[in-house]
Amino acid sequence: MKKKIVITGSGGFLGGRIAAYYERDYNVIRVGHRNLDITDEEAVGEYIKDHNPDVVIHCAAISNTRVCEENRLLSEAVNLRGSVNMAKACRENGSRLLFMSSDQVYGGSRQKGPNKETDEVPLINIYGAHKKQAEDKILEILPEAVCLRLSWMYDFPVRGLKSNSNLLTNLLSSMVQNRPIRLSASDFRGITWVQEVVKNLEPAMELPGGVYNFGGESTLSAYEIGSRVFRMLDKNGNRGSLVVPDETGAGDNPRNLTMDLGKLKSHGISFSETVEGFSRCLETSPEYVYALIGESIVEF
């Protein structure tokens, strides 16, 4: 008998791809805000009890950081209280919970290198604060829950699945329109191909309870990453450099969202380094890139 998985936020960029990938080998139940209000504790409890999943992958969130800053009560209701409600329901039902957290919990980091899960970091934005508070409360309620800190993700557009603005599509748009793209020279972070996140969720279901960094490693700035990926796309060097450094916020206070994956690797799960991940992604769809920019980036 197939294991049953409930995926919240299944209409979103990540949740939709998780559902599409696992529906062949698992009994996947897609959950969106139209059929479950996660801020309603009683409704969440009844839903999980009725469907009795083996695993809940909780992706539902208000992930736009600006929206969270402007509407803190909404962020608290969805990102914090909704996640706590899910943990309580999973505890009562005996379901495994995988909670999608964020590298934004490291927004106030002043570390010189990649951040570890145990580092004490000031919380400087509402989204990151509510994700961190949700992690703490979830593990208090359900110690065997797995909290995964994700980075900014990207993918090619996929028919029938939600597409978000991401670094890959932004770079391709820049090339098609021959317009510059500004990327922060003081924003250091990993950026992850979403398909690696999706595939690594299966072994993550077997992780011991706790918090894990879960995404591509990097020590580069967004500008450095974008410049290297641009050179992959502009293989023949015909377009010069359309990637422009944004120096806003540079100086003594760079933002460090980079993640140390040592803990995750100790359990046999790994991700491509950020630039390598872009290379792997591009190799999967060279025809798509060729159709957009009229140049081959790999032989096909």
TrEMBL record:
GO terms for molecular function: dTDP-4-dehydrorhamnose reductase activity; methionine adenosyltransferase regulator activity. Pfam families: RmlD_sub_bind. It is an enzyme of class 1 (oxidoreductase). GO terms for biological process: dTDP-rhamnose biosynthetic process; S-adenosylmethionine biosynthetic process. Its EC number is 1.1.1.133. Residues 4-270 form the RmlD-like substrate binding domain. Gene3D superfamilies: NAD(P)-binding Rossmann-like Domain. Keywords: NADP, Oxidoreductase. It comes from the Bacteria. Pathway: Carbohydrate biosynthesis; dTDP-L-rhamnose biosynthesis. GO terms for cellular component: methionine adenosyltransferase complex. Catalyzes the reduction of dTDP-6-deoxy-L-lyxo-4-hexulose to yield dTDP-L-rhamnose. Belongs to the dTDP-4-dehydrorhamnose reductase family. This is dTDP-4-dehydrorhamnose reductase. It comes from [Clostridium] celerecrescens 18A.
